[in-house]
Amino acid sequence: MAMVGRSFSLCCLPSQAAGACPAKPTILRPSFSAVAPLQCHPPTHRPRAPSSFSFSFSFFRCVRGMARSDNGVSRDGQKSFPLSSTCLLKLQRGDITKWSVDGTSDAIVNAANERMLGGGGVDGAIHRAAGPELREACWNVPEVRPGVRCPTGEARITGAYRLPVSRVIHTVGPVYDIDEHPEASLRSVYRNCLRIAKENHIQYIAFPAISCGVFRYPLSEASYVAVSTVKEFADDFKEIHFVLFSDDAYSAWLEKANEVL
Ligand code: APR
Q: What is d(CA 190, CA 232) in angstroms, rounded to the nearest whole number?
């Protein structure tokens, strides 16, 4: 896939206006969610008895619908849950570095560490895909104390450079065995990411399973915190996605979404 780099290197802090980072001019990937609604036209003739043509047409539409959806999972592998009349929660397996909706009002979340200069797991994948400009932007985020740009539970936002989304939101999840209040910290993670996204006019946001890798947060507990917390922001976004790398994480999130939503 051709990647188009961008030259800006400014980091956008929460207090900065959304216009501080230029919007990406090119949409590199089609929307995951664009499904044209079926159009219904009012009848222009008297109702007729069903013909064999209308039966076979209905059958075709029915089969087509089944091909598009299996247990509510669309052909692109997404499972959707309404959070409100205007917001969907979407679950899918995959690599978050490939995710985008429109390249202008979308953001992915990075499970970073407090230094914010890259690491392993999803952090490493995001930095590799975004290119060296992302590390430079992170470097320019002011330290709140030596070696700490983003304390655990907080969030920072930068441009996305060679990624197909418009922004990257960096957050630091709790280390499960060390944090004194891991659930409260993980809730802060989701709330602060969604707050900073809202301040920056993001409408579509995708999270990985924050803290569920190196930081060893159990999937079942993490998925409950994640799904129940993002629900609080149902009026603020069009779509909130979880892009889950492993089958285990996907199953945990699916089970929790079915329970909580
Ligand atoms: N897309 C989506 N999810 C991914 C990807 C990817 N490309 N790569 C890994 N993951 C998943 C992992 O499978 C795990 O479920 O992201 C989840 C979070 O795992 P980690 O990346 O290890 O994040 P975390 O547990 O929060 O630990 C953060 O790891 O390397 C670092 O710098 C990072 O120190 C920080 C720590």
A: 10
Taking CA atoms, 143 is separated from 113, 117, 207, 211, in Å, by 13, 12, 24, 22
Task: Give the model confidence (pLDDT) of 5-37 as tens digits.
Answer: 333 333 333 333 333 333 333 333 433 433 333
Tell me the fold of 79-260.
Leucine Aminopeptidase, subunit E; domain 1 (3.40.220)
Three-state secondary structure call for residue 205: strand
Distance (angstroms) between ligand 1 centre and the Cα of 89 equals 21
Chain mean position to CA 252: 17
* Domain spans of the chain, in order of start: 79-260
pTM of the model: 0.79
State if residue 185 touches ligand 1 by the CB under 6 angstroms criterion: no
128 touches ligand 1 (CB under 6 Å) = no
Q: DSSP secondary-structure letter at 233?
A: G
